[in-house]
Amino acid sequence: MNSLIDKISQFINVYYLDPIRGDSGYNVVNTLTWALILGICIFGVYRLLNTLKVRVNPRFIASVLPFVLAGSSLRVLEDSPAGIFDAPWSYLLITPNIYFLVFAVTVACLWLSLSLQKAGFIRDFHYAFAGLGLLWFLGNLMTLLYFEDVVLAYVPLFVLGAGGGLTLVFYGVARSLGSKVFTDPLNLSILLAHFLDASSTVIGIEKLGYYEKHVLPAYLIELTGTALVMYPLKLIIFIGVLYVLDTQFEDDEDTSKLSMLIKMVILILGLSPACRNTIRMTLGI
Q1: What is the Cα–Cα distance from 118 to 114, expressed in whole angstroms?
Q2: Contact by Cβ (8 Å): 212, 223
Q3: For residue 130, what are the contacts with CB-CB under 8 A and spacing of at least 6?
């Protein structure tokens, strides 16, 4: 019995706890686990938003984005060699723990904004909600700039230029083909977020000596010998995903809400690492 317990304990330590303690990245086991948990959480968030009577639309998604920037910059605070956060508090800011922390703060701010609107203090909760996220992000950014110096100012220029440029090219091709799916502003925003993520990976690995922590991208980068593989990888995956979401989901209210929520999650999964990577490299962390 003790032998079995020891094996289970060792398994948990090797595949779950050690990567968090050492921030060593992902493996196949924890990647599949976090993906499963994310899928469960999507349905939980769907029910929560229904309970709060919040409509998931492009306007709501835009109001969530400041919290994505806040969460990403908070993660960089933990990365900082200045030692802004010490263990065990620093463990809260390592993936996947930080997602739960940011989610809790985001929901609290959403509830506060909705309460203010219901009480008549504000007319539209979207502005208050986005404002709280923006204040959080700016606070994190100011803290980072207090402890760290801007080392590589060209990094955000490259990431924004490459990501934005490729998105414009994709839009031009999609428009010339008469595609409604791939000229939709929200879908283009999702593609932009992931092209930004790919661009941050390219400059980090090809020029600055960083490495990829995620399992599939790391494998493909090693296989091809270049981080440029991230661009076709993102394109192939998200063309397929967005096409399915916009054409194969039944056209009723529930599935439409769920489709919009999934799009929001996909956008967050691209923008979050893009923001974190870009800030880290800009500050030389």
Answers
A1: 6
A2: no
A3: 62, 63, 64, 65, 66
Are residues 44 and 55 in contact, defined by beta-carbon separation less than 8 angstroms?
no
In this structure, is the dihedral angle defined by the CA atoms of residues 247, 62, 262 and 259, taken in order, positive or negative?
negative
Instruction: Provide the pLDDT for residue 93.
Output: 75
Place of tokens 């309970």: 51
Residue 151 token pair: 């080392």
For the stretch 90-105, pLDDT in tens is 667 776 678 888 999 9
Q: Name residues whose C-beta falls within 8 Å of residue 72's C-beta, 6 or more positions apart in sequence.
A: 271, 272, 273, 275, 276, 279
Counting Cβ atoms within 10 Å, is residue 43 exposed (0-12), middle (13-18) or buried (19+)?
exposed
Confidence class of residue 162 from pLDDT cuts 50, 70 and 90?
A: very high
**pLDDT tens string 144-159:** 999 999 999 999 999 9
